[in-house]
Amino acid sequence: MSAWIGQGDVVLFQGDSITDAGRIRDNENDLGKGYALMAAAQFSAKYPEKQVQFLNRGISGNRVVDLQQRWDQDCLNLKPNLVSIYIGINDTWRRYDRNDPTSTDKFEIGYRDLLTQTAESGAKIVLIEPFVLPVPEDRKLWREDLDPKITVVRELAREFDARLVCLDGLFAQASTRAESAFWAPDGVHPSPAGHALIAKAWLQAVGAIE
């Protein structure tokens, strides 16, 4: 099943703080402490003969517009064979903490621009949809803004023949087994267990595990 990631491929993780996960920026090979590290480690342990190189260029606080501004340097110039993009929660969050909203239309236009450039480079694409859990309670209000953006990500995945990691339902389901704060203490940033959930879903999406 792992043929989707080939021999000697370069796999790039892109996104915001959830992807960044405290990586050391001065070390271009540092993968942070989150799902990117977990997914890369498990893949490499299972398929050592493939010699896949994993890179992380997630930056905390980023929105789609920030990815657009650095896409040449932090994506295309790295010549990845597979690009995994996890963006969107800050496009919602800034509406509520800084009164700096990103409309669904602007989000979609910017995201499509990223995907068009990536597809034209010949890279395969994985899209990870954003999620939010009701911790604290006011996060429930974010649904009005985030849900249409999640729909955009799903539609873009189909349009660009990308693999989709459906996190919103996954974390909702997980929250029936342990309280939401167990998976994401602030409703947004995953706990280690939450990162492990994402890593497993990512590996399943690329066909590395059943």
Automatic annotation (TrEMBL):
From which domain of life does this come?
Bacteria
SGNH hydrolase-type esterase domain residues are 15-197
Query: Which Pfam family, an example, fits this chain?
Result: Lipase_GDSL_2
| Entry-linked Gene3D superfamilies | SGNH hydrolase
Question: Which region is the signal sequence?
Answer: none
- Where exactly are the transmembrane stretches of this chain? none
CDD domains reported in the protein's UniProt record? SGNH_hydrolase_like_2 (cd01834)
State the PANTHER family in the record.
SGNH HYDROLASE-TYPE ESTERASE DOMAIN-CONTAINING PROTEIN, THIOESTERASE 1/PROTEASE 1/LYSOPHOSPHOLIPASE L1
Per its record, how is this protein called by name?
GDSL family lipase
What taxonomic ancestry is recorded? Bacteria, Bacillati, Bacillota, Bacilli, Bacillales
